[in-house]
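Researcher: Before we compare anything, I want clean individual predictions. No alignment, no superposition, just each chain on its own. First chain goes here; please echo the sequence and then give the structure tokens.
Model: Echoing the first chain and its structure:
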Amino acid sequence: MGRRWLRRPPAIRRALNSRDKGCRFPGCSFTRYIDGHHVKHWAHGGETKLSNLVTLCRFHHRQVHEGKVEVQILDDGVFRFVRPDGQSFDSPNPGAKDWNELVAAHDIRRIRITASTAVTLWAGEALDEGLAVEWLMQRTKRAKNVPAGTSVTQ
């Protein structure tokens, strides 16, 4: 679509959704409430085309526009997210690697994913609203210089 369109036409939106399958920020699993972001901003001459677009959730999209993260496109199509301190995170195309390569990349980075990695301690019981409100009330009373985990009633 080039420079004539700021908004993504339906065909590009479908292609972007098919390619990215959700937020491309490394580790983010959001697939809803996502936006197409121009890597080279449209106002600075960036085109509305698939190779200049990346899908981001609203949180990471805001991080980019607030300057907390910069998005770069590498020659092989990988998106690199760079923080102001220089730390970078790469996000390869979700369909580009098979699982063996992903496991090898995790081994290099010493990332250990086990069957209990994403298991929560919540057993499905109902929320105790009274306890939740009491905790929130205590939290608002906590002095700003008191470390987290310190009881208010000590």
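Researcher: Okay. Second chain, same rules.
Model: Second chain and its structure:
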Amino acid sequence: MQSTWENLVEYDMSESGVRPLTLRELVDMGFDLDEFLDQPLGYSQSNGTVELRERIAAIYPGARVEQIEVTNGTSEANYLVALSQLRSGDGFAMELPNYMQMPGVARSLGATVRTFRLVPDDALRATSRSRRSASRERGQDDDWEPDWDEFERAVTPDTRLLYLSNPNNPTGSVLSDESMTRIVQRCEATGTWLLSDEVYLGAEIDRPRTQSFWGMSGRVIVTSGLSKAYGIPGVRIGWIVAPQDLAERCWTQHDYLTIGPNKMSDRIARVAVEKQNRERCYARTREILARNLPIAREWIDSFGGRVTWREPQAGAIALVKCDSDVPSMEVAERVRTRQNTLIVPGSHVGLEGYLRIWIGGRDAFLREGLRRIGIELRAILGA
């Protein structure tokens, strides 16, 4: 749906990152465009140049350059892990709601897909008040945490691979330390690989930096890239951080898929992932989101409780719940056809009754996009 309409509508409110950086801004960070103009445009190193992999490895304590595989975006990173690990009859588990690439990939490889839900805090009342308070003092919130009964049914000894996103797309939530530990322990007990998509790490709005799963277990695989927290989706650079033998198996799949990243993207990425530039990108993302969050908050409040949300802790996504029985796909189609504006129905992220709306654009764009969406929601709600 997004690929079909995102370049045809007047207002694309289906995006999921902040407005992108320009090449001029990357030149200001140190990308030598003039020098690159004389570079022969041959193949680059198919698993990423040593220089880029060294700089990515430095982000993950204890990682070596041999454990890094550079890919064409985080989506290819996830795909390569699945191609290298899943076989017919394997079990595959994932959290919902989520970025919905992986269940289709797993099914195409013959795996059996099981899911478990992240549930909002009204389903977590049994959690002690003291524990919730302690979590929030550390900058954490238990607004969306796994349904543990479903989790244990989904992750069993026949589960080859577990996929999750943290920070999560589309809730913008971050798993608590306790939940991360419990997930890792379960994967170790069942012999399951844990694939943690961390492309939103660094896009935190008003909370500490999200802890990576990397280093918590030898069964952890991390994927990430430049698309979301960095704000550089167009260069299509992602990466895998994994035990060396698994990274090498992904590399063999990569050679038969897209071969490798392009030369200019690799060079740009070397600049972007340098610590000072990485922090500069993250700060830009936080600044955009901190400025936009009050605009979205005011819009939500204007519905008088008929449209609600749990504010995202990270990322440029508003996941909003509508007090209506109209299916989310029908709502999204109505917004698209009547307001020339694209949003993501909750059914496309595994959570019916919600809408995923972009909040990472410029002020005027965001306000007008929300105004258009609001026209249709008010008509549906009778508000």
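Researcher: What stands out in the second chain?
Model: DSSP finds 14 helices and 14 strands in the chain. Additionally, Confidence is low (pLDDT under 50) at residues 124-142.
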